[in-house]
Amino acid sequence: MTHDHDLVLRPTEAQRAAALAPPPGRTGGDLVVETLRGLGTTTAFGIPGQHALALFDAVGRSDLRLITLRVENNAAFAADAYGRLTGEATPLLLSTGPGALTALPALAEAAAASAPVLAISSQVPVAGLGGGRRGHLHELRDQSASFREVVKSVHIARTQSQIPSVIAEAWESALTAPHGPVWVEIPEDVLRAETVLPQVTVGDATPHELAPRPELTALAAHWLETAARPVIIAGGGVIRSDAAGKLKQLAERLSAPVVTTFGGKGAFPWTHPLSLQSWLEDRHMTDFLEDADVLLVVGSGLGELSSNYHTFFPGGRVIQIEADLGKLESNHPALGIHADARLALQALLETAGEREDPYAPERVRLVLAEIAARLASQGLGQEQGLEQQLLTSIRSALPPRSPSFWDMTILSYWAWSAFDARHPNTMHSAQGAGGLGYAFPAALGACVAEPGTPVLAVSGDGGAMYSLAELATAKQHELDVTWLIVDDGGYGILREYMTDAYGRPTATELTRPDFVALAASFGIPAATTTPESLADDLKRSLATPGPSVLVLPTTLRMFAPTHL
Question: What are the C-alpha distances in Å from 169 to residues 33, 157, 175, 368, 481?
Fold first, then answer.
């Protein structure tokens, strides 16, 4: 009996001819590049190192576009952003030991945010594997062990014949829901040695679809269409699976209010009558969600930030759609549906009947009014609060479809709740793992992904110090990025946290450079801005091709989640 896949695997005459006469001078590094090109890769990020030279040499002889940054962690952030925006598994090329380990924090962020980064690292020569026997530079006892608990999967090639299959397997893993970073490791001598293997001409690494179980979606649809007060929490899984359109259709069919998590910003229209926006760090919103008799959670694990720091306790039934099996029912009992958000929402659309509720928009309006009144009582309302005024200025200056990237800084904490992302997959922050230094290098990756589109990065002065070296990258590639640095003299959010908890801050005050002069030394236009001139200065910077820096000296405050 002949199966279809048997026919697919049969080589063509051209493939047979190419296999019998491979071009001379190819190495294991060429096998890596050929496999990536066969899978559709056009762009890679990374930094060369001693054990990875053969790989970078092969890239240099290919048509693969290579974006080299200055710090491996920043290269990983850039690859993360490229993967988020394009939906492609993005190669991150690293050397052994310190170079590889430096990328760990960024890979942790990619894992938390389900970004498909394909990290490919060199290793010491095969004879030195096992640790400590040969004393190789950069040697680790078990390099892959350092990544195994961070990335989605680990893939190791020890011979040249394993390279194409291992990379294809890793690619498939990275793009199967939930997306995530994967780790590939290849020894230096395997990359360097000439190969007699045929050229890799075809890539076959189709991600698996994660469809919901029909009996579960049937029950979920029944609960939702018969609910009295259904509410939807939309997380980052909606963005990753490109399911915002289906979410809107379902919410309107059920007359169900929708709140987006900080990772799900843009998944639902901000000004829609059913939009609860993103005020998850607010007790009024928490109470509203607890009052739902059926709560549909799509693409979120209801972690610390999405549960208002674990103060949220659902009062009704919970339906949770989640592609990451480890997050399914990890925080609250639920009807757990292990599935890709897009496929599960489609199943609900095909099953759930119409539910009319003319009072739902009014309930939404009332809870948003309560939140606005709380902020006003703290002197942080939209009219009198500097923080929301800055967000209004940024929103007015930033083109609707321009991506923005936010570091862990006070203005970003406000943006999680109060910023209108306008469109799906346009607002990104480091709230997954919470490390510093994300915004600027991630914005550079976005510039590569969407050339000709202005991109905004927002950092505090503390977080900016992690990324200053990438001013050189922005200039070298003339990337269309505007970097807004909010300078409050230190780690502003930690200053607030420590003052609240201990009465005084420690180790939060920082000596900073003159950011404007520093950017100018790289040949990058830079200026100091003010809250009053921010909107105009941002518009001008975003409209000017190439990189630019704006520094905003100001001190911001965080809101309290309840009325004071």
Answer: 15, 11, 10, 47, 34
User: Residue 341, by phi and psi: left (phi above 0), alpha (psi -120 to 50) or beta?
Assistant: alpha
Domain with residues 4-192, CATH architecture: 3-Layer(aba) Sandwich (3.40)
- Tell me the C-alpha distance between 135 and 19, whole Å: 39
What pTM was computed for the model?
0.93
CA distance 56 to 44: 11
In this prediction, residue 231 carries a pLDDT of 98
| The Cα angle at residue 117 between residues 74 and 246, in degrees rounded to 5 | 115
pLDDT for the residue numbered 9: 58
* Dihedral over alpha carbons 242, 244, 249, 254 (to 10 degrees): 120
H-state helical runs in 102-232: 104-113, 145-148, 163-175, 188-192, 214-225
CATH 3.40.50.1220, the chain: domain bounds: 214-366
Q: Are 69 and 474 in contact (CB under 8 A)?
A: no
Q: How far is CA 477 from the centre of its chain?
A: 22
- Structure token pair of residue 339: 């599935």
| Domain span(s) for CATH 3.40.50.970 in the chain | 4-192, 379-553
Positive or negative, the CA dihedral 262, 264, 269, 275 is negative
3-class secondary structure per residue, 213-250: CHHHHHHHHHHHHCCCCEEEEECHHHHHCCCHHHHHHH
The strand pair at 481-487 and 548-553 is best described as parallel
**Which residue type sits at 112?**
A
CA distance readout (Å), 105 to 41, 80, 112, 149, 470:
24, 12, 11, 12, 17
| Contact present, 445 and 81 (Cβ < 8 Å) | yes
The candidate with the shortest Cα–Cα distance to 350, out of 440, 280, 268, 249, is: 249
Give whole-number Cα distances, 279 to 260, 296, 372, 540, in Å: 8, 17, 10, 31
Task: Tell me the pLDDT tens digit for each residue of 505-540.
Answer: 999 998 999 999 999 999 999 999 999 999 999 999
SS (H, E, C) 120-138: EEEECCHHHCCCCCCCCCC
Helix (H, G, I), strand (E, B) or coil at 32: helix
Judging by beta carbons within 10 Å of its beta carbon (0-12, 13-18, 19+), is residue 149 exposed, middle or buried?
A: exposed
Domain 214-366 listed as CATH 3.40.50.1220:
yes
State which fold the 379-553 domain adopts: Rossmann fold (3.40.50)
Q: Report which DSSP code applies to 271.
A: T
Q: What is the pLDDT of residues 76-135, one digit of tens each?
A: 999 999 999 999 999 999 998 899 999 999 999 999 999 999 999 988 776 666 655 566
In sequence order, what E strands does 396-452 have?
A: 404-406, 427-429
User: 3-state DSSP call for residue 338?
Assistant: strand
Distance CA 64, CA 58 (A): 9
Task: Kindly give, in sequence order, each residue whose CB lies less than 8 Å from that of residue 388, ignoring residues fewer than 6 positions away.
Answer: 375, 380, 381, 382, 414, 418
Contacts of 222 (CB under 8 A, 6+ apart): none
